[in-house]
């Protein structure tokens, strides 16, 4: 068990059986009273619509679901609490029954964590005693919904940013501490390179990175505040006066920047010198506190050149306001000019990090405008998923005691697909994912190079034959006999799965504007099964 009680059983301690909606427990009592506890149920966990006006979703949260199954057991204090919460007429024996429940008889099938996923294809199929699988609903949904939304959001930023570096800076803006931790973890899985969240770094072994805040710059007024101005060279030797070296460089730079000395803030320069003394090998600093070109950049370059005199290579700058395209171009222009003039080739490659309310659209727009940014620090829009704050995963009963169950709706898209189903992804010869095919679990799997009729679930005329070059069975058994029965990938492997899985999607499915929907189909047998069940269960009205 990790220290500080942050994690118990290898998992956040708040993930426990009472982290659910009261109605699950209310139903458990009524199931128990009706003698239905031993009924065998099958539930599908799926979503109906991709988030962010996109056409793909990344499935995440599976490992947490499996850990939850491992510790699913009502404690004595849970049961004491429920005694005070359920109506006083609740029979004692029910609480004894609750105390015996575990997930030992549950089977959980799921997509690999990090896979791309599509509407209506179950992310999970959960089978087992009705009461237990019902009691799992809310917790499984809360573990999958935000994780998948976050990983999808991150994957979208990754597409927009191409190979540029992406850091998650959102903890301060996240939906509470748990939202913040989950955001750091699942944005890393979805394609970010690291986080500023130190606890996420410790718990999940994610790279932690960061610069400094404007307060560091504004905490200095002038050189008089510098308690120490000396720094030893990188390769040893006598400590030298970094202030003096910096001021000499500043004089040389004035003509390049076309400014007079007093235009550049002395407080800012003092702050930069002190920061460089603290981190001579990691000098990365904000340059937009007062004025980028006339103050921040000039001061930064003077300190970076002084560090260079002592054998250190500065890392780069962060821009946190203004026109990020323009300012990045200006910054790169000066870095290049200085690098050439003073024959310091690496200077032109100094890192330019941009932050300030950046979202997917900002990155796309910056790409169109042209910019010289290497790295984005993204907080609010990423972690709050501002463009779409929830993924609508649902958990629906599809079978009870081997008989299909269907939920009808006025909206065709909301009619559930009855019966236990399997899902297959069919691939083209070039490795592109062509279609996800749902079949009844009793059907034999589709075969490579055999023509398969793929049908739209609800529109009779929409059908196509597919001859797949590869068939992937999507739902694999992860939990049975009270334990995890499939080796779980590491966080890095899940991240790798996101990358490889995204590569199988055609680019028109992934594009930001009006993407092409990916096809999700049903087998001919499942098509007829759904429609038979629909007719059987839909009451026939009478006109009068
Ligand atoms: N070239 C650009 N194209 C599109 N959006 C940009 C560009 N540069 C910056 N932005 C975005 O525009 C917004 C600018 O924010 P805002 O109007 O608050 O200005 P600011 O620079 O933060 O102001 P301040 O100087 O007061 O901090 C941010 O969301 C930022 O990500
Ligand atoms: O903009 P976000 O995507 O949320 O990224 C994180 C922001 O957090 C920090 O400052 P903060 O916003 O707290 O203060 P500031 O806006 O005054 O810089 C940082 O400077 C970023 O601007
Ligand atoms: O390290 C940073 O630059 C950082 C961290 C959190 C929020 N904004 C910026
Ligand atoms: Mg801000």
Automatic annotation (TrEMBL):
One of its GO terms (biological process) is NAD+ biosynthetic process via the salvage pathway. InterPro entries: Aldolase_TIM, N/Namide_PRibTrfase, NAPRTase_C, NAPRTase_N, Nic_PRibTrfase-Fam, Nic_PRibTrfase_pncB, Nicotinate_pribotase-like_C. Transiently phosphorylated on a His residue during the reaction cycle. Phosphorylation strongly increases the affinity for substrates and increases the rate of nicotinate D-ribonucleotide production. Dephosphorylation regenerates the low-affinity form of the enzyme, leading to product release. Residues 421-529 form the Nicotinate phosphoribosyltransferase C-terminal domain. Residues 316-401 form the Nicotinate/nicotinamide phosphoribosyltransferase domain. GO terms for molecular function: metal ion binding; nicotinate phosphoribosyltransferase activity; transferase activity. It comes from the Eukaryota. It holds the Pfam family NAPRTase. Keywords: Ligase, Magnesium, Manganese, Metal-binding, Phosphoprotein, Pyridine nucleotide biosynthesis, Transferase. It catalyses: 5-phospho-alpha-D-ribose 1-diphosphate + nicotinate + ATP + H2O = nicotinate beta-D-ribonucleotide + ADP + phosphate + diphosphate. It is an enzyme of class 6 (ligase). Belongs to the NAPRTase family. This is Nicotinate phosphoribosyltransferase. It comes from Dendroctonus ponderosae (Mountain pine beetle). The lineage of its organism: Eukaryota, Metazoa, Ecdysozoa, Arthropoda, Hexapoda.
